[in-house]
Automatic annotation (TrEMBL):
CDD domains: HTH_ARSR. It comes from Verticiella sediminum. This is Helix-turn-helix transcriptional regulator. It comes from the Bacteria. One of its GO terms (molecular function) is DNA binding.
Amino acid sequence: MNEDEAVSALGALAHTQRLRVFRALVIAGPEGLTPSVLAERLDVARNTLSFHLKELAHAGLVTIEQQGRNLIYRAEYGQMNGLIGHLTEHCCRGGECEVSRSSRCNC
C-alpha cells in the first residue's frame, strides 16, 4: 500500500459511523451484509448508511456484490491488512516483532 492509499483509507475510517460500519462488516466475515441489515444493526438511516458505504468503497475498504435484487457489502481484508502493514512496516526498526506478526487478519 502506498502513502496515498493509506491516507484515503484512514480518512474513510476517521468517522464514527464509518468505523462502526467497517467493524460490523469485519465481524460479519466473508458472507457480508446487506445495507438493510447494517442499518438495522447499527440503528442508522439508510440514506446516511449509503453515503458511508460509498466512502468506504471508494477507499477500497469494502467490496460490493449484486446478488439478485440485493447488494452485499463485505470488508476488503486485503486492503485492511495492507493498511495495518503500512502502519507497522517499520515497527521494531523493520525486524520481526509481536505487533507485526499478530496484525494480520487471515479471513
